[in-house]
């Protein structure tokens, strides 16, 4: 697809990933829970994948729980932790510009008696550590703030959020669906207790992701899917060996250089009158742009009929200004001239 510029919504599965997955789809199909030789081979492949993901974020393999993607990982982090406090309930801090799966999980938790504070971002989409510190309460049970924003590309200061959470002995979760592999992450240096990631944002398959959980076995997180004890009892269901192997291959073969598409894009966008939203600290592959006039939008759309999104893929269906753009103070009128153009991602930033 040579007119596709929506890589923050999803990436293609790379050839290396497809090759790595293939044998596990048919020849080596045994259930990883089976105790015979073929089953053990699947279990070993899964273990190697677990080691690869863990190493990427400075965690231990036993702290990685495979899920169907970042939405499930986020739900497991939030509900799994909240359900530990069902009797006493408690307070959760997040931000107004999280992915809808976090916001909807929080709304659900509010509906059953938890309190949630939604931190407001500044006009660039940054959530400030001081606003977080100001909202910490004695009954705060969880802080969950994303790493890179999916619509704006802004990089949040998660190390500082982690330090605040650590200081108050509150678990810190981050949704790293848009930063995993792009940005360096070390869960110890950044005081991260839980981290969500997704395969299809990094040239891996759809339907696979993971939740890092510090000391997973002792975490007492309540599983959302009870099953036959897979994933340390935290996520039941037959392990999808091909998808898990594919996720690890995606990490292993993640590109370190930008794609030539990026240069082509820079040449094109320079011909238009626009402002880039998200401030200075943004990932280079995500461009949130507001065209100066409706005419400029029309000219861009007719000259370059690209597959891009207005807001994120999820909001695009509802035809209203996204909650992220509204939260940074953008009017509905300006939001209509605002698009997310996202390029093939690659490894780029220190944090
Ligand atoms: C920041 C963020 N969180 C969560 C998700 C959901 O990920 P998945 O599609 O793996 O469930 C996405 C994907 O759009 C995302 O960008």
From TrEMBL:
Gene3D superfamilies named in the record: 1.10.260.50, Aspartate Aminotransferase, domain 1, Type I PLP-dependent aspartate aminotransferase-like (Major domain)
Cited Pfam families: Aminotran_5
Instruction: Provide the cofactor list for this protein.
Output: pyridoxal 5'-phosphate
Q: Which UniProt keywords apply?
A: Iron, Iron-sulfur, Metal-binding, Nitrogen fixation, Plasmid, Pyridoxal phosphate, Transferase
The UniProt record lists the keyword Transferase: yes
Highest taxon of the source?
Bacteria
Enzyme kind, highest EC tier: transferase
- List, in alphabetical order, the Gene Ontology terms for molecular function in this entry: cysteine desulfurase activity; iron-sulfur cluster binding; metal ion binding
Q: Which reaction does it catalyse?
A: (sulfur carrier)-H + L-cysteine = (sulfur carrier)-SH + L-alanine
Q: EC number(s) per UniProt?
A: 2.8.1.7
Q: Which residues form the Aminotransferase class V domain?
A: 4-343
Q: Which InterPro entries match?
A: Aminotrans_V_dom (IPR000192), Aminotrans_V_PyrdxlP_BS (IPR020578), Cysteine_dSase (IPR016454), PyrdxlP-dep_Trfase (IPR015424), PyrdxlP-dep_Trfase_major (IPR015421), PyrdxlP-dep_Trfase_small (IPR015422)
Classification via PROSITE patterns: AA_TRANSFER_CLASS_5 (PS00595)
Assigned protein family: Belongs to the class-V pyridoxal-phosphate-dependent aminotransferase family. NifS/IscS subfamily.
**Annotated function:** Catalyzes the removal of elemental sulfur atoms from cysteine to produce alanine. Seems to participate in the biosynthesis of the nitrogenase metalloclusters by providing the inorganic sulfur required for the Fe-S core formation.
The identity of this protein, by name, is cysteine desulfurase
Question: Which species does the entry assign this protein to?
Answer: Vibrio scophthalmi
* Organism phylogeny: Bacteria, Pseudomonadati, Pseudomonadota, Gammaproteobacteria, Vibrionales
């Amino acid at each position: 697809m040579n007119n596709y510029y929506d890589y923050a919504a999803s990436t293609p599965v790379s050839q290396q990933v497809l090759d790595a997955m293939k044998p596990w789809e048919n020849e080596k199909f045994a259930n990883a829970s089976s105790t015979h030789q073929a089953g053990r081979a699947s279990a070993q492949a899964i273990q190697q994948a677990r080691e690869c993901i863990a190493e990427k974020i400075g965690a231990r393999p036993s702290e990685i729980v495979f899920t169907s993607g970042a939405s499930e990982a986020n739900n497991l982090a939030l509900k799994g932790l909240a359900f530990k406090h069902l009797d006493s309930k408690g307070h959760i801090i997040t931000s107004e510009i999280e992915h809808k799966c976090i916001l909807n999980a929080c709304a659900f938790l509010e509906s059953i008696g938890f309190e949630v504070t939604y931190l407001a971002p500044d006009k660039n989409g940054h959530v400030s550590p001081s606003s977080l510190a100001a909202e910490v309460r004695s009954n705060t049970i969880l802080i969950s703030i994303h790493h890179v924003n999916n619509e704006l590309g802004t990089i949040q200061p998660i190390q500082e959020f982690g330090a605040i959470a650590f200081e108050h002995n509150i678990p810190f979760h981050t949704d790293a669906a848009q930063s995993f592999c792009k940005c360096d992450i070390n869960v110890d240096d950044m005081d991260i207790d839980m981290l969500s990631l997704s395969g299809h944002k990094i040239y891996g398959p759809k339907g696979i992701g993971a939740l890092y959980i510090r000391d997973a076995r002792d975490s007492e997180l309540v599983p959302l899917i009870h099953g036959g004890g897979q994933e340390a009892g935290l996520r039941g269901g037959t392990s999808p060996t091909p998808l898990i192997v594919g996720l690890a291959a995606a990490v292993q073969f993640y590109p370190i250089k930008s794609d030539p598409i990026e240069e082509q894009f820079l040449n094109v966008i320079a011909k238009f009158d626009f402002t880039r939203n998200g401030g200075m600290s943004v990932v280079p592959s995500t461009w949130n742009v507001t065209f100066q006039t409706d005419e400029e939008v029309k000219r861009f759309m007719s000259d370059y009929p690209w597959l891009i999104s207005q807001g994120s893929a999820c909001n695009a269906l509802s035809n209203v200004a996204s909650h992220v753009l509204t939260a940074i103070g953008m009017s509905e009128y300006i939001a209509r001239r605002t698009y997310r153009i996202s390029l093939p991602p690659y490894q780029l930033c220190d944090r």
